[in-house]
Structure formats: structure tokens, C-alpha cells
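Hey team,

Filing this mostly as a record. A colleague (T.K.) asked me to run one chain through the structure pipeline before their review meeting, and I want the input and output archived in the tracker in case anyone asks later how it was produced. No errors, nothing strange. Just documentation.

Input sequence:
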Amino acid sequence: MNTEIIGVVVIFFAMILLSVPLGKYIGKIYEGDRTWLDPIFNPIDKLFFKLGGIKADKQMNWKEHLVALLTINLVWFILSMLVLMNMGWLPLNPDANPSMSADLAFNTSISFISNTNLQHYSGETGVSYLGQLVLMLFQFISAGAGMAVCAVVFNAMKERTTDKLGNFYNYFIKSMTRVLLPLSIIVAVILLFNGTPMTFKGKAQFISVQGDTVNVSRGPAAAMIAIKQIGTNGGGFFGANSAHPFENPNYFTNIVETISILLIPMALIFALGYILKRRKLAWVIFAVMLIGFMLFLIPSVYYEMHGNTAVTQMGISPHLGNMEGKEVRFGSAASAFWGISTTVTSNGSANSMHDSLMPLTGMFTMLGMMVNAFFGGVGVGFLNFYIFMIIAVFISGLMVGRTPEFLGKKIEAKEMKIATIIALLHPLLILAGTASASYLYTHNAQGSSAWLNNPGSHGFSEMLYELSSASANNGSEFCGLSANVPFWNIIDGVVMLLSRFLPIVGPVAIAGILAKKKYVPESAGTLKTDTSTFGIMVYAVIIIVAALSFFPALALGPIAEFCSMK
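Output structure:
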């Protein structure tokens, strides 16, 4: 157990130490400052701009940024539907995997363009190599789009009055070529040297020691696994995701992949400090997110390492902890660390079966997705936190009897209306979706009894987790739920679509509106946002919103299951 704790501590501090210089590097990219990679990537950037007919120096207002984002996502969605529904006869299909049905292709296409990567199929048998390559492309694109939108908000938060917020395509291309691609190459090379396949050949065949003929799936896996982790995508090449020995061969690759989950979300906070020249504010935001992350992480590691008391009462030694659904090569502590890391972000990859987590650990993974603001996905995680900051500033202003101000701009009714709608959208989608699924199951409609194998509180948790994952653009699942049915494919697709783009539209609109307002210098009565007091206020707003919204549902699911064990 001591060794497991040491492994968790090493991963934790490595993430923080690496994120600080990476954040400064990202800040330089978005500011247009010179970086040491310019000689390599400037020609590549210019090539993309030339092929796309893009004028990278053309300034856009916030509405033009959103039009660009939504338009290109529509094009990618159509392309994905065409490929996934026609894989059976298209090239790069050595294993003759079939085309997807319309509802599954709809779910998968929205899942990958929304950075969710919820998979209602198994990669070995459900997608051709061409399909995998297209989905891998979307893992770069969706992550790059999220980072580009975040850069727009960073630009809008500067202390000046303007409606010119940079160029979306410039931010988008540079996010991929300057950040996502180099980091993905590093991770992919590490995976290659540790045994992850990278080939276009079909299944390998060998004779087992029992004399059975075994077909082993392979493919261009290393490249896809790297960007799935770096871009908080989470969609695995193989059905077992990062529990598969080809995706995650050993403890060292597990460390690398775990760090990759949180590296860019953490780094973007320090990029904010560099761009705004407010490093103290960045550390306040980082501290709030880190404390929230640790409050989920520490009890989860504890419960997984101590295991199930019912198993102990059977005379089975608990020294390995709760190892049901886990890989021996990782252990219970590292699996719990991954489980929390992947759900406080929008990563959603898994190195263990989340359905087998202890009840309260399962609750903390759900809370990570329900809060959806403790680091979150690349770019969009900060946008969610930005909404809570706006609400916290407004409440603080009311408490002291002053017009709320944030970074020198007055928060008024229009901004608060948008922030409130976006803050309530997330719980609405999760709870309304779970209520609909529960109704269908209890009334045995549309064959619902076939997709839920666990009645009672755990079955409810599986449905609640599914909708939380879709709404948080996370993509992980409690896999006791058989989700590849029309109901889940469609409802998850709709939830993923709404929860991806409306929470982007809202913060960008608020930031754009505030950027046009006259800058008001700080005075003695101005609420300072780079203090621990403001950090506590933001954290209180997050906890209150999450508690009021989700505690009743959690009481019916994981909390009830935990109490039943006692």
C-alpha cells in the first residue's frame, strides 16, 4: 500500500510541475510571442492558412467566433456520418467491420465532435481503420476548438474596451500544431516503445498454450491513444480502453497517460495568468480547482484501497483493496486516481471498470462530472468555471451593496441572465434525462428492461452516471448499462450536442459583451478577484449549486447503495 501511495503522489506533483511551464508556453502562443518551436511550426501554420484561405491577422468579434465554430462543426458532423455509415465498403477495413446504424452513427459523430467520445461500440469490431482515423482527427479538432474558444475568452478578459478578440482560425490551428500535436507525438512514442501497436495490418493470430487459435486485434493505436489523453477526449482504440494491455501496457505508461489527462487543463490556468499579467489570479483559480479535485480524490483512494467490507467478512484478505474490475498491474490507488482525474476533466477514458467502484467512489466520479468546473476539458473547463466566477462576483456585489465588477467591467442583468441559464442547463439535462430513463425502465417501455441489468440503487446510479457523462462531455460509463439502443443513442446525442455548444456560446457571449464595456479602474470598494476570499466565494457558489441540484439524485443512487452495505 505504501508503494501505491508513492505512485499517486508522484503522478500528482508531476502534473503540477509540468503544467506551469506548459501554461507559459501556451500563453505565449495565444499572445503571438516568439517561442522556440516557431521555426518548425510557422511554415506548417502558414500552409494550413493558405489551403483554407484564412487571413490569420483578421480580427473577429465574439459573434464571428461562434459562427466559425458552429459552421465547421456542422461540416465535420456530416463528414463523420458519411464515413461511419459506409465503413463496410470503404477502404482500410482489413477485418471487414460493418457500417454503423443511423442512430449509432449519430451518437458517435456528435460524441467525437463534442469532445465527449462516449462509445456505444467496441473499437476492435465496431469501427474500421478508416473510421478510427477519422475519429482520431476529430479528437484533435474538438480539443483544438475548445482551446481556441478559451483563448477568445482570455483575450476578452484583458483590461481594455474592444470588440476585436483575435482570430478563431489562428487560435484553432496553433492549438493543434503548437500544443496538441507535439505533446501527442511525445506520448505516442513512449507508448510505442512500451508495446502499443501502430500498424495497418489486420488481426494477428497465434496458438495459445491450450492449443486454441486466438485472433488479437491491433491497428494504428498509439497515435489515437496519445491524443485521446492529451486532448481530454477519452475514446479508446479498444473496447476496454486504457485497461487494455495494448493501450496501457504497464505502470509507467499508466503514469504518463494519467498525467496527460490533466496536463493541458491545468496549464491553461497558468496561460490565463500570463495573458492577463495576473499570475496571482491564476493561482487563486488553480487553488480552488485543485482543492475541489483533492476533496474527490483523497476519499476515493481511501475507499478503493480499503475495499469492500462484505468481501473481508468472507475471509478474503483486503490488503489489495477493491480489485474487482481493476488491473493488477495498476492497483486500486492508481485506478482511483485515474477515475477521479478522468471525470473532473472531460476525458472519460478508463483504466478500470467504473461500474465496480465502491459506491462513494462512484459518487465522487459523478460529482466531478456534475460540477464540471474543476479543471474540466481542454479550454471548455475554464469556461464552466468562468460562469461560476461571474455568479460569485454578482452575489458578492449584492452582499456589499455595490455594482458588481469583474476585472474592471460591470456585471449587469444581461450577463447574469446568460450565466444563470448556462449554470442551470447542466443539472437540467442530467436530471431530466435520468428521470426519462427511469420512467421508461419502470414502465418497461421500448425494451428498457434489456438495457438495465441492475435494478435498485445501483441501476439508478448507472443511468445517472450515463447522463452525467453525456452532459459533462466526458464519455465514461458505468458499463452495466447496455447503451447501444436507439433510446440511449438518441438521448445521449442530444444531451452531448446541447451541453457542448450552449456552455460555449454563453461564456463567449458574456466575455464579448464585457469586453465592449468601458474599463473601470479599481477603487477601495472594488472586490479583488486575486484573493483567497474571492476563491472561497467561488468555491461556495460551486458547492451550493451542485448540492442543491444533485444531492437528491445521489441519495437515490450511490448514497443509498453505500448505506445498504452497512
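Quick notes for T.K.: The CA atoms of residues 3 and 259 lie 18 Å apart. The longest helix spans residues 486-516.
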